[in-house]
Amino acid sequence: MTRSRRRRTRRRGLTAALTAILTAVPALWFAAPAAQADPAPHTPAAHRSADTGPAVRHDTSPTLRSMAAHAHHGHHGKKVQDDDPGEQRLPHPPASPLPDPVVQSSPGGPSAPSTGTNFEGIGAGNYSITGVPPDPNAAVGAGQIVETVNTAYAVYSKSGATVLAPTDTSTLWSGFGGSCQTTNDGDAVVRWDTLASRWVVTQFANVSSASGPYYECVAVSTGTDATGSYYRYSFQYADFPDYPKLSVWPDAYYVTYNMFTASGSFLDAEACALNRSAMLTGAAAGQQCFTTSSSYGGLLGADLDGSTAPPSGEPELMTGLGTTSTTLAYWKFHTDWTTPANSSFSGPTSLTVASYTTACGSSGTCIPQSGTSQQLDSLSDRLMFRLAYRNFGDHESLVVNHAVTAGSSVGVRWYELRMSGGNPTVYQQGTYAPDSTYRWMGSIAEDKAGNIALGYSQSSSSAHPSSRYTGRLAGDTLGTMTQGEVTAITGGGSQTSYSRWGDYTSMAVDPTDDCTFWYTNEYIPANGNFNWHTRLASFTLPNCGSTASNDFSVSVSPASASVAAGSPATTTVSTAVTSGSAQSVSLSASGLPSGATASFTPSTVTAGGSSTLTVGTSSSTPAGTYNITVTGTGASATHTATFTLTVTSGGGGGITNGGFETGSLTGWTSTGTTSVVNSGAHSGTYAARVGGTSPTNGDSSIAQTFTAPSGTSTLGFFYNVTCPDTLTYDWATATLKDNTTGTTTTVLAKTCVSSSGWIQKTASVTAGHSYTLTLISHDDNYSGDATYTRYDDVTLS
């Protein structure tokens, strides 16, 4: 399934129907107070949209479980074949002339929120994937979790059991009629209405039309069971309502859009209020819509968490990026259902924040990935879902985030806003960028204690995109994420042909305790394009709740390792007391590949202690990347951590110890000065160093003779040369001799640079042939310019 921007690319050149264009002309204009609004000299700040009006269809559905029983489990569209044009950039501020003044350049303390339940969501393993990105988001209800991706939904228990398998989202509108039933166009969002204990699901429809009309399909559950019946609605739009974002407020369900012409030209942002009270009873319902000027896009509406409503009559707050590098913009949406003419949409008003530069320059695309030159889109031209609101009684708080430039990489700028005199003010802000890894695609929320959790994607040139989260406690130093960083799932691959990633993720709060966070994001298990998976992970931050019970955390270090089939991998499993007293924790592992075993030494620890996990593989263990779940079970709680194991060259023959994770040169023969080092590895803990940090004389090398296993065609390795001299005297090089044919290939031509960084080289191999790979570093023994080369991750694929 393609996302909307790619659909628009296919429609470019088509002319929208004149009537569709004319209906976008405003019926009524509302200007913001001149003293507060951002400059818009030729365009009024906001106007009532012609999309205002009643739902064009509504009904009550059969139960979702009965409709799903007859539904197609997997999208029926064609796989995307066109090129990837990327995301059309929305209006966004120019770059700041100053560096980010609120960067958090070091990680939080040693205490980290331990992952509770952690399970697979919708993805290539259980649904037919036909496009990117997946749009992963989830909502948590009284007893269930509902996840939606671009074109599918699923229902789970809170233990991760599947209640309803992944199914086309259009199933919700089976028998409804119109485009909501006949198309499955995506951009789905799900929320839990905490005040009414209902599910709300949205998806747009008919977006491939060259002339419209277009639709937003909305379903509100009749009760707490996500598999039960729904009140269903279809709202109509003259222009293309892209990137819909749903928020819950007492007087309405609010949805924001980026509006485009059918040919793909950006128009403005549109905000619509849907009659919540009518929709909760299945009655006829309408919407009231307003648009901004063309200077703004990517608005988010305040989305209620917790059971305490905002003060009576408080308008819905909406925010977006400002027009300068030191501002956000906000609007107030007041909805009057009795006298709609009294409804208003005031703004934009500027809110001054610390200076920032939206990530990745003019294109928005610069996120690196391991093993590919394909970069990912940061979507830095908008605030990221959600604008999470909570009323604490003594103050009202909202949190939101977006991707910004942080030195030479990308970090997550986050804000806590508090209402004062009816207007938002900045209470605290920070940019989470504790190292050079790129972090983006964030989602943020607060628990009932005022603790903040932040989830995001993470990637770099030496790491595949992964899902991570961190947090801070209510009383911690302002502007910092003080908790350690946790990896919910480590990606085993990169997206090799498309820039579109995520589009949004979601941090939700469990309404049953108002303490447990659930984070939903995507990852890829192996290099590819239409093989994404999603992951749902829960965790709590300390001191949420009236009393502190005994609890602990579980973590692994290193979090990943690469071994050849037949070799073992080890990691340290650490536990820590997070509240109360220490308790006995029993350790176990699941998710092992075939032919592998796991053992813990010791198998039971007292919280605060550690154990060594040894994963043994056999010669029959298939090559691949495996997420092994390490579970710690105590008397009061159970927590998990993920250890990612990459097995290379399974099935006989192949490279031995290609990642050097044995901590030695086992499987290799060496000449000259060679060693294994435990710093600066390309992946895992270890790398081979050929040559020395002091001058050496002539060639140093490591070599291995192997047979290319059946099904392999490519040898690859990474090198990182440190050569302060010139190519005349010093160099790195590598050769591959085919012992079967007697031919020798230079895989790495002689190279000498002062610091190359990690670079991958590949060569073709023929299955069944015997080869000798020789990795060389040459130094002329001249004082002061020692040359050496690190090698890592030698693989066959």
Automatic annotation (TrEMBL):
Residues 1-37 form the signal peptide. Residues 37-120 are annotated as: Disordered. InterPro entries: TAT_signal (IPR006311). Keywords: Signal. Residues 37-46, 105-117 have a biased composition (Low complexity). Coiled coil: none annotated. Residues 79-90 have a biased composition (Basic and acidic residues). It comes from the Bacteria. The keyword rRNA-binding does not apply. Residues 91-100 have a biased composition (Pro residues). This is Dystroglycan-type cadherin-like domain-containing protein. It comes from Streptomyces roseochromogenus subsp. oscitans DS 12.976.
